[in-house]
Amino acid sequence: MKARYVREQKTICGKEYMEVDLLNVTASEHRASVRAKKQFASSLAMKRCNDRNALRKLRWKVSENFTERKKKTWLVHLTYSDDFLPEHDEDAQKALTNYIERLNRRQRQKYKEAMAKDHHNPGGVLRKVKYIAVTEFQHADEEKGLKEVRYHHHMILECDLSIDEIKDLWVTRCGKGWVEPLGLVKADRAEFDKGGLDAYCEYITKYEGKRTHKWRQSKGLRMPTQPRPNDTRYTPRKLAEAATLYIDDKKFWEDRYGVLKLGHGEVRQYAFVGAEPRFNEATAEWHVIARFWADPRRQETKKAVHRWE
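and the corresponding structure tokens:
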């Protein structure tokens, strides 16, 4: 019996992004049931790449749930002025919750207005905002040499609101009919690069493990699709060749993963973005992560079928 197998695991994120992991697995992992393999597949690559767990999870989720085509995604930074700086994490989370509720109230109003114009087709207006948010902070600790990092929030936000509405809702009530800005707000239209927001994802996770991060997201976000893994396509020798001889070979990777056949006759064309090899000296094993982008402008569109009476 073979002592080692090489697992090929695809992670399909939405319609534009895909990653392929190639890594060694044991004989017992290879013999696992279909259900166990699916559960194992979702965590295996993460365990082999611990120092980039947060970044990969975030990149997958963003690529699955947010897209440039809708032109509704914003990158939002929320800060606090001295007067409203939270003293505890609970206060910061409450301020963020209140802000999200205000966004949703304004978004529901937009939806109602769209429904009033056309009950059957509200023009793609969202019922609620869609978001991924992180609260970041660090308490000062002289013994550990840690400086204070003020509470602030980063958001990836999809909504039908204007930039003025996004900024104007970061407020707190100071009395009957009186509101004050909690701090400064920076909001920029998201600029996607090959189906993702890698630069922004890396930016908001760069202090993971050093500063305190509190993550939250809107309900209903989809998880990426991971088909059943293939443990027989590669051998350890072929994996080593892919990690060394062919790591930057566009043709090598696109010959293998450039075309993905989906259900109902749909075919998706992927372009090679890049591949990252990692070598574990303790086990003498390679792990390769290959990345692909399905440019929506180059996808085949289904032709309309006309039925003649």
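(Above: one complete record from the training split.) The CA atoms of residues 131 and 157 lie 4 Å apart.
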